[in-house]
């Protein structure tokens, strides 16, 4: 088995190592990004929901950038929301700041009961730029 081609954003590697997962893995022209939450640098949740969503996207964008991607390269997104009936409108008021213009990526939204103290998580699959896709 070949080693995974892992992508680490600057400054958060010990967080990923402590929790035993890779932030993203390159494979066959795609970047598979682990779920990103609105964590502060120490890993604790941002308490305000809007700020938590912004941090989740900032953390996601740092992983994408480390692989030479932007959110425009995202082809598939999965969002996890605790108590979506109460939180969806607040979350979706922030999303356009990061999502960009149509056409949008494919999306799956999942309501969950627990996210380790967070209210929102996003994981994506992105196309790698051509020079990295080989």
From TrEMBL:
One of its GO terms (cellular component) is cytosol. It holds the Pfam family Ribonuc_L-PSP. SUPFAM superfamilies: YjgF-like. GO terms for molecular function: deaminase activity. It comes from the Bacteria. InterPro entries: RutC-like_sf, YjgF/YER057c/UK114, YjgH-like. PANTHER family: 2-IMINOBUTANOATE/2-IMINOPROPANOATE DEAMINASE RIDA, RUTC FAMILY PROTEIN YJGH. This is Endoribonuclease L-PSP.
């Amino acid at each position: 088995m070949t080693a995974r081609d892992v992508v680490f954003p600057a400054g958060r590697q010990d967080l990923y190592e402590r929790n035993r997962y890779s932030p993203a893995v390159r494979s066959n022209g795609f970047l598979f990004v682990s779920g990103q939450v609105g964590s502060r640098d120490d890993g604790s949740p941002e308490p305000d929901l809007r700020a938590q969503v912004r941090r989740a996207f900032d953390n996601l964008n740092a992983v994408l950038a480390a692989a030479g991607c932007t959110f425009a390269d995202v082809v598939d997104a999965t969002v996890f929301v605790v108590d979506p009936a109460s939180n969806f409108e607040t979350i979706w008021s922030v999303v356009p700041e990061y999502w960009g213009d149509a056409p949008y990526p494919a999306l799956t939204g999942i309501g969950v009961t627990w996210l380790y103290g967070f209210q929102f998580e996003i994981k994506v699959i992105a196309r790698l730029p051509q020079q990295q896709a080989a």
